[in-house]
Specification:
Elements lengths: L2 E6 L4 H7 L6 H7 L7 H17 L8 E4 L1 H4 L23 E4 L8 E5 L15 E6 L5 E3 L1 H4 L6 E8 L8 E8 L2 E5 L5 E3 L1 H4 L5 E9 L8 E6 L9 E4 L5 E2 L12 E5 L5 E3 L1 H4 L8 E8 L5 E7 L5 E5 L5 E3 L1 H4 L15 E4 L8 E4 L8 E7 L2 E4 L1 H4 L1 H4 L5 E7 L8 E6 L6 H4 L10 E5 L5 E3 L14 E7 L8 E6 L5 E6 L5 E8 L11 E6 L2 E6 L14 E6 L5 E6 L5 E7 L3 E6 L7 E4 L6
Parallel strand pairs: 1-13, 32-38
Antiparallel strand pairs: 2-31, 3-4, 4-5, 5-6, 7-8, 8-9, 8-11, 9-10, 11-12, 12-15, 13-14, 15-16, 17-18, 18-19, 19-20, 21-22, 22-23, 23-24, 25-26, 26-27, 27-28, 29-30, 30-31, 32-35, 33-34, 33-36, 36-37, 38-39
Length: about 600
């Protein structure tokens, strides 16, 4: 039986968010515009209504539609929570999805992570992992059994990278319990090498990312951890003071994240304390990596009801947490938010990164702009991203250029954690619609999901989210996992009316990924920066190839590549609307493949 210590959720983050009054100098500013005396939530909602009316008067952007094609494509994944009335915290948290080309055929495949039954219960799905092979032509085949990935676990998320540099992508799966590392055999099958690698990492693991933090040519692994929880230590929480509800993480003790250094021989060493990332107070859900201008990777960690971290790479095998100094640890009132998904991008093509973090209901989505390399300022309100999702619980999110105009747009997957929340808060629902923000440049963002078709208006209990060119037509499709529901695949129709290039980058002489490579694409009148990354979003990972939208530009472009090894390479005369594969050191002769641009 779980612990009976009552924890009223209304006394936690929900009540704080609803009742605290805005303090100077914000209060003075609100008085000037006629909003004095309102709570933070009331003021934001008033501003939101005004912004919405203004946005509706603007002309619609480029005609891009999203069609929900999961069943048509054969993607029938159904998430299993294992819930049977006990309201155990892990049931409401999963799960993630990874987009990867595991068989090197040039088509992006899908890996979904699932749960299983609690001990003593029956009715588990056949496997907690589901791998779909992309057959082309809008067809996916479940190859889980053939690939050797049938497992039973309380799965959470996944991260993909070639840790042994053999040319094929390997898979790391996080879970409540022991994690799993699968080595790609190169034959369409995987081998469980968790024990040999020494990377099982028991506890409650969440978001993870492969990163060569010491730049020795071998991918290391950062694994986020949430809280210490077992069925025996479950705490009785309540929304209404009468019946049990799903808890927030606040009454639970946190678990420290782990950093595993790749020894280069198929094994890993836990260097969490030595490297400076050990912190048992954190309650991590999201992990994102970004390179500095000289290629050293820094790490952003999104924590749920604890301060967010910015691990700055000290270039000697250690990190220092500069989250507070960087301005991303707390909200404007000095309180930690309920942070989940996280991503970064050069969204203004200025060289200054944007950092977005999805937060709990009645907390704005955090949107920061990099002012200096390790310092950000809060742009959540002016961006129009923050207010738009105020009542939603924001999980998976990512920057991507859905209309290929050369500006990074933003997708957000939403869904509440409590299936009975509407009884207490009628204006909030369990299932929630995703959000799609079009990047308007200096004018900020505009929420346009409703303008892209009815499918994005459907409410789901969204969790993990990722993107990839799943149908090979050049524009970026979206895949979303739903807690206790079926996955959705949203096909992008019309994004490829604009021009683009796609770059698949490969490290060193043999590696099957380019993780850590930073690319600057120079076209007439524009300069875009992207990097190959693992992690980001929530428990998920998007495709590794980089897509650069070029708008109406038809002239060849130049790509300047900074490899994680520190080597620099320039590749010129890249023609639009082609896929290019570039191996480190062979940029003078990239492999080129035309993209079949299908009009729908």
């Amino acid at each position: 039986m779980g612990q009976r210590a009552e924890w009223h959720r209304g006394s936690g983050r929900d009540r704080r968010a609803m009742t605290h009054r805005i303090k100077p100098p914000a209060a003075a500013l609100l008085a000037a515009v006629g909003l004095a005396g309102l709570t933070h939530t009331e003021a934001v909602l008033t501003i939101l209504k005004s912004a919405s009316a203004s946005a509706s008067a603007q002309a619609a952007g480029q005609a891009v539609r999203f069609a929900e094609v999961s069943k048509d494509w054969g993607v029938t994944f159904q998430h299993f929570t294992g819930a049977y009335g006990k309201k155990y915290l892990p049931e409401t948290m999963g799960s993630g999805v990874c987009v990867l080309d595991y068989d090197n055929d040039g088509r992006q495949d899908l890996l979904f992570v699932n749960g299983t039954v609690w001990p003593g219960r029956e009715g588990s799905p056949s496997s907690s992992l589901t791998l779909y092979r992309n057959l082309g032509g809008g067809r996916f085949q479940d190859v889980t059994v053939a690939a050797g990935l049938v497992r039973q676990l309380k799965g959470m998320g996944c991260a993909v990278g070639d840790y042994d540099n053999d040319g094929f992508l390997d898979i790391y799966v996080t879970a409540l319990g022991s994690n799993l590392l699968f080595r790609n055999n190169g034959s369409g099958t995987f081998a469980d090498v968790t024990a040999r690698a020494g990377i099982g990492d028991r506890g409650w693991s969440t978001g993870a990312a492969w990163v060569d933090y010491d730049r020795d040519g071998h991918l290391d692994l950062l694994v986020g951890h949430y809280v210490t929880w077992t069925p025996e230590t479950d705490i009785w929480c309540t929304l209404d003071g009468k019946s049990k509800s799903y808890c927030t993480p606040e009454p639970y003790v946190g678990e420290s994240n782990r950093l595993f250094r790749n020894n280069g021989d198929g094994t890993f060493a836990d260097v969490s304390q030595k490297a400076g990332v050990w912190n048992p107070r954190g309650k991590t859900l999201g992990v994102a990596v970004y390179p500095t201008t000289d290629g050293w990777p820094n790490i952003v960690v999104a924590n749920d009801t604890q301060p967010n971290y910015l691990y700055v790479n000290r270039r000697n095998g250690t990190f220092v947490d500069d989250g507070v100094q960087a301005g991303i640890a707390f909200d404007e009132n000095g309180k930690a938010r309920g942070a989940m998904g996280v991503d970064l991008a050069d969204f203004q093509n200025s060289g200054k990164l944007g950092l977005v973090i999805g937060n709990f209901s009645r907390e704005m989505t955090s949107f920061y702009i990099q002012e200096q390399e390790n310092f950000f300022f809060d742009w959540s309100g002016p961006s129009r991203v923050g207010p738009a999702g105020l009542l939603l619980v924001k999980f998976g999110l990512f920057f991507f250029d859905y209309d290929l105009d050369g500006l990074a747009d933003l997708f957000v997957s939403n869904g509440h954690v409590d299936d009975e929340i509407q009884k207490i808060q009628p204006e909030v629902s369990h299932a929630e619609p995703p959000l799609l923000f079009q990047n308007l440049g200096k004018e900020g963002f505009r929420e346009v999901a409703a303008q892209t078709g009815a499918t994005l208006a459907e409410k789901i209990v969204g969790r993990g989210a990722a993107y990839g060119d799943l149908d090979g037509d050049g524009d970026l499709d979206v895949v979303v996992s739903a807690n206790g529901g079926r996955a959705r695949v949203f096909r992008n129709d019309g994004g490829n009316n604009n021009n683009f290039i796609r770059l698949t980058l490969l490290r060193g002489p043999k590696a099957g990924d380019g993780i850590g490579a930073r690319v600057v694409v120079q076209a007439r009148g524009s300069r875009q920066i992207k990097w190959v990354k693992s992690g980001s979003s929530y428990l998920s990972q998007s495709e590794l190839p980089l897509t650069f939208g070029l708008g109406r530009e038809t002239a060849p472009v130049t790509a300047e590549i900074l490899w994680p090894s520190g080597k620099r390479e320039t590749v010129s005369n890249l023609e639009p609307n082609y896929n290019y594969t570039i191996r480190e050191g062979r940029g003078s002769s990239p492999q080129k493949r035309a993209v079949a641009r299908v009009s729908r």
